[in-house]
Amino acid sequence: MSRSAAVNVKIDHDDKVYAWSDAAKAKIEAQIKKYPPERKASAVIPLLKLAQDEFDGWLPVGLMNLVADTLEMPKIRVYEVATFYDMFYTEPVGKHVVRVCTNVSCMIRGAEKVIEAVQKEVGLDKPGTSADGLITVESFECLGACCEAPMMMVGEHYHVNLTPERAVGIVKNIKAGKAPVEPSK
Ligand code: FES
After folding, report:
1. Residue among 144, 90, 162 nearest 171 (CA)
2. Among residues 10, 26, 47, 73, which is most buried (max CB within 10 A)?
3. What's the CA-to-centroid distance between 138 and ligand 1, angstroms?
4. Does the C-beta of 100 come closer than 6 Å to ligand 1?
5. What tens digit of pLDDT does each residue of 157-167 get?
6. Domains in the chain: how many in total?
7. One domain for residues 113 and 56
8. pLDDT digits (tens, 9 = 90+) for 30-70
9. Is 146 in the pocket of ligand 1 (CB under 6 A)?
10. φ, ψ at 85 (rounded to 5°)
């Protein structure tokens, strides 16, 4: 999904020097092979995803530059892609990202109470990242599961038909170092 035009996206730096692991290099080679040699920039999205997953869950400028150098493409074009798609983070985020949909269908079915409960459990009074850097809570536009509203996304997994209590149970599991699922009854 792309970001709405109203979202003000920043890009951030850190002090690290980035280099691919051998495992990442093999995956990169496999991605690049999918395209003609003169079109290897077409692999920018899978490489950005790989970079984000391989390192700290977000894309500092140095890491985006590594992707640009790997694909021999202008750095600005990599920044453009990374800031357009909402699956990429160009500022630091917590180890776990909880996206609570607050768009119309979810709002009508109680999303406000869900996000309030999640924020409270994380120690926040608005969307942001917990003091220990473990969890980022985001208020999100429609995530495409309106028929099962209200919902939230944790990492790449959807949790639907939520109540505040069930959402908090999922967050408690994350805080306990368990899988981001509902506690078993
Ligand atoms: S409005 Fe929440 S998933 Fe569509």
Report:
1. 162
2. 47
3. 14
4. no
5. 999 999 999 99
6. 2
7. no
8. 999 999 999 999 999 999 999 999 999 999 999 999 999 99
9. yes
10. -90, 130
